Structure formats: structure tokens, C-alpha cells
Target: mTERF family protein
Amino acid sequence: MAAAPLRSVLRRNGLLPLFETCRLRDLLFFSSSVDPAAAVGGTISPDPHFMVEYLVNSCGFSPSEAAMFSEPLAHLRSTEKPDAVLNFMRSQGFDGAGIRKVISGDPRYLCCNVEKNLTPKFQFLRDLGLSESDIVDVIRNNDDILCRNVHRSFGPKLEIWESLLGSRELVLKHLKKSGWFFFSSVEKTLHPNLKFLRDECGIPEERFSLVLRSHPQLISQKPKSLRALVARADELGMPRQSRMFMWTLVVFHNVSQERFEAKVELMRSFGWSESEFSSAVRKAPTFLRVSVDMMRRKMEFFINIVGYTPSFIASQPTILLYGLQKRVIPRFRVLEMLITKGLGTRLGKFSYYVKLSNTKFREKIVLPYKEKVPELLDILRAGAEQ
Model:
């Protein structure tokens, strides 16, 4: 089903005026939905610890987990609401593992009023065009949706992220994976970060929007943290006008200063100068995401086996991005065998062939010699299976 326009969904639910005028803030509902005195249905017990057994039998938690998660439920004397919540979640497609993930996020979800708190949220997500399985994925990864007013919190933020990422489908795709980025404060986080990138850093909106489509978490961090990342990029000499500037921020967001310094020391041990390291990062910042151990193994292979100098590798840092066991070594062995057979006198530089796509490498190197050297395919297959 095609996703209905957000405003149509809100208008159909009579919520457009509220959507347009409400403050962008998150409202918890537990205080209004929990009724400690409710004991109208379900199992009634005077034992304050009966919820431990309930969590084991009804949800599949281990006794130790149940003991921990039962603490926020100590006021309950009836299983009426927990029964209703569990039955509702199962009816919406949640399996046992999904239910446990949500309840472990906050056991108080078992105190929800299904009709008032849960049903409207699930209906809202359905009206946005999400399937049953999509909704399960979104809530499994973002259970705090259940403790928010979706029309005041989820709705407005959805509209903002739609404009940033370019489509609702892309926003929902990220939400199904991990949506912690989604609920950052608009006033305290999103707007200040966007203004900083656009006005102070001079980065065109279309450029940072392109990066945010795959890394929305970049602007969901505290403004102070984003400024620190920009300072690190400046120290490296990365021009803010460079198209690699935003990608450098993404890398720094995932690579701590400590891990960065460890890589600086490693490459220095191989003979890289400070300027060579900075130049390599400016050309291919994502190589910093390679672990120190893997980086060492790649450098040793390129220097000791291929015969490259450290300075050459610094000038071609993208070769450090490719898988050593599945791509680099098998391709080197293929080229090495062709040379041994006297067929590789005009094969050019290895760095060129490392960068070719799998299809292009087969077309240019393997298939033309498959009759004379059938072992080439075996070499590539063996590498792919590692």
C-alpha cells in the first residue's frame, strides 16, 4: 500500500491543528495509564512477587531476568493489563523474542491501557503505510515510540526528517533498523546542528542532505559533539569546501580520538610522515574505520608481498579499503599465476586491478585465459569462500 501523505493521515484522525501548533516535546504516558488499584480481571494475587513467575511463564524470561524486570511492576496485583498487552502484541505480529525485547526496554509497557495507549499508535503507523512486519521492526528497534504521544512527537519529527532525507520511505527504512537518531530534540539538537553546518561551515544543504541519507545520526548528536568533529577535521587540514568533508565527519563520529591516534602511530611505524597520513585521510577518510590489526596486515602484504613503498600506499589509500582475504590476495595470486605462465607481461599495475569490480576483473583477467589457465576461477572461488 502506498504511504498516505502525512498531513492526510493527521487530518483523517482529526489531529492536523494539534500537529501544527503543538510544541515539539516528548510526553510520557505511564503516569496516566497505570492503575495500581485495577484488579478486575486476570489473575489476582496478594504476593508482591507474583510478577516474577508471570514474566517467566508468559514472556519466556529467565528467572533472573524476570526478577529484575518485575521491579517496576511491584505495584500490580492483577495480570489484567499485562495479559491484555501481551495478547495485543501477539495479535500485531510480535513473536516471543520481539515481546521480550520490548518489555526489557521498559517493563512498564505491561501497564499500558491497550485501547488508549497502544491501539492508536499502531493505527497511526499503519496509516503511514507501514505493513504489520514493518511496524514490528520499527517498534522492536524504537520501543520508546510506545511511551510517546505519536501525534505530538513522532508526527512532527517525521515531517522534519522527510524534508532532510528526501522521502518518508527512507526515514522509515532507517527506523526499521535503528531509530535512536529520530527522537533528538528539534530545538536543542537538529536546528542548531543544521544551522552550524550551513551557516558557519558553509556546507550546501544538498551536500549534507546527501550524507544524512545514509548517516542521519550525524546531526542527532549534541551540538558540542558535532563542533568537536569539525575541529578534528580542521586540524587534519580537510577543506570545508571539499566533498569529502562531510564524510570525514561521519568517520570521526565512528572513530574515537584514541582509535585515530592508534592508527597514526601504526602508519608512522611503517614510515608514513604526518603530511602523508593527512593526505591519505583527505583522499579516503573511510580507511580509518579499518581496525588496527587489519590495517597492519594489509600494509605488510602490500609492502612485503606486492612490493609497494609506504609512500605509494599513502598516495593510493583506497587500496586499504578492500578485503584482504576475499579480494586482494586472490587477485594478486591470479595475476601472479598469469605472469608465471608468461601471459601477464602487459597487465599493468596491481592497484588498478584491485579496484575493478568483481565482474570487470573476471571479464578482463580471468575469462580471456580460462582455457589456458582454468585454475584462475578456482583461486577466486577459494577467496570468496573465506
